[in-house]
Amino acid sequence: MSGQNIFDKLQNIDRRVFYWVLFITLMVPFIMPIGLPVKVVKNTRDLYEGVTGDNINPGDIAIMNFGYGVSAWSECAPGFTVCAKALLREGARIVFMGAHYDVELSYNKLRSEAAEDFATKQYGVDYVFLGYFAGGESAIAQLATDSWTVYPEDHYRTPVSEIPLMQDFHGWQDVAVVLSSDTGDVGSYFLRQWQGAHGTKLAEIGIAMNGSTDYPYYLAGNYFGLSIGSRGGAELEVLIGEPGEATTAMDSINASHILIVLAVILANVGYLVQRRQA
Amino acid sequence: MSNILKREAVFAVTGIVTVLMFVEYFFFPQDWIVASTIRNWAVIIYNISLGLGGVRLIMQHTMGTQRRRENWQFSVLFLVAFVIMLFTGLAGYLGTGVATSNGIYNWLFNNVYTPLGSTTYAITGFYIFSAAYRAFRARNVDAALMLIAGCFVILSNAPVGEVIWSGIPAIGEWFRFVGQVPGMRVFGVVGGLGTIAYGFRALLGKERGFYAGGAEE
């Protein structure tokens, strides 16, 4: 061990050192915020413009699908919240539902984050929360043709026949736009059963890892917009002019991303020198 | 009889449902009551399978506890958590129709489940950091190219990338849209064709695994 030079040691750093370095690096921006400007990319701008201005009319029905659980709040919730705020401000009516069993927690979080926007709206008239649905792609296909059979009642057990908003929502032909936020495949179910089959406007607010899967569909026009991970959420917060969780998280994203690149460079310097010495 | 149920009945049901769904897609784009009813059944069966999964989990962990299998303590923990969440949730549901109206259920969800879920997800970041240091080595030209591309994509995803050099976002975007999207399209198309081929093989009875397990013919 004593015979090791610095490059040998670089190759054998204890993994606990990495954990502590990353932990401290992530903490620093919370204590001393950096606040670098966030540039908005085209796919995020397309998403925002698709749910605002001339692209959405008062009274239009939007479906917002919670396809993420609490573990992905940091990536999905900020962007989803901005879209809900934007739709409510445009006077659109929103049908909230979820293919993830954490849907109620995520819905409650969204309600508290956008409390001011919901305060002026009436439940059952301007928005409705249908809760969790099981059945995967079959259920989403059925939602397109006869939504009342998938949801005979809302999350609070009120029959949909007694909910004013639901009188205007029976299937795909009643919906102006679908926004799905996912950690998994639910967005692609909407893509196949709604956008592909009926041409419904569809956008995805997904985790960063799904970005590579979603880009081809965005470029092909299947998704009219795309928000990717916390970065997408921060961009949407910039667009609506209300910095929130994602904007705060950008400092940590900056720090952690730089750290990973530095670590990779450092590891390779050690590796190349060691290889040359050998 | 059991063999008929295992193979011929599954074969017949799969074939009929497939044909009906094809017919609906191409000839009844608005709605077709037959296909709609079948989809309803699918949703109901899916819901039943969730209940079945719960029962199976209880059986599995109860047996594990009784026989003192390895890590049986976790099975006990699971059973206790299952019972608490089930009964507190049911109490809330029977009272108001919403499980989270029960204080204990709600408290456990907000103060145990939520932080644990976030923590589990966040821990992957630490593993990725450690793994990146150990695994991303420029052992050959291919690996070096992947490393360089990866670094650009990582930095282009963070606002700091543009601060370091204004060209980083453009290069990162190039890797994403020009370098990666065609590859993903190929995966998508090949996957789609593979699914069609698998579907036909299953319908023709060539996929034994689809029916009753075992290797294909």
In short:
By secondary structure, chain A is an alpha/beta fold.
Give structural notes.
The complex is a heterodimer of chains A (278) and B (217). With 278 residues, chain A is an alpha/beta fold. Chain A has helices at 6-11, 15-31, 42-50, 73-89, 103-113, 115-119, 136-145, 147-150, 164-167, 186-198, 211-219, 229-240, 245-277, and strands spanning 61-67, 93-98, 127-132, 177-182, 201-206, 225-228. Chain A has a six-stranded parallel beta sheet, with helices on both faces. The two termini of chain A are 17 Å apart. The model of chain B has no long low-confidence stretch (mean pLDDT 87). Chain B has three domains: 2-49, no CATH class; 51-122, no CATH class; 135-189, no CATH class. In chain B, helix 2 crosses helix 3 (72-96), helix 3 (72-96) packs across helix 4 (103-135) and helix 5 (141-157) crosses helix 7 (167-203). Chains A and B meet through helix 2, helix 5, helix 7, helix 11 and helix 13 of A and helix 2, helix 4, helix 5, helix 6 and helix 7 of B.
* End-to-end separation of chain A: 17 Å
Care to count the β-strands of chain B?
A: 0
Beginning-to-end CA distance, first to last residue of chain B: 22 Å
Level-2 CATH architecture of the largest domain in chain A? 3-Layer(aba) Sandwich
Strand content of chain B: under 5%
Helical segment count of chain B: 8
Describe the secondary structure blueprint for this structure.
The complex is a heterodimer of chains A (278) and B (217).
Chain A: H1 6-11, H2 15-31, H3 42-50, E1 61-67, H4 73-89, E2 93-98, H5 103-113, H6 115-119, E3 127-132, H7 136-145, H8 147-150, H9 164-167, E4 177-182, H10 186-198, E5 201-206, H11 211-219, E6 225-228, H12 229-240, H13 245-277
Parallel strand pairs in A: 1-2, 1-4, 2-3, 4-5, 5-6
Chain B: H1 2-27, H2 33-66, H3 72-96, H4 103-135, H5 141-157, H6 159-164, H7 167-203, H8 208-212
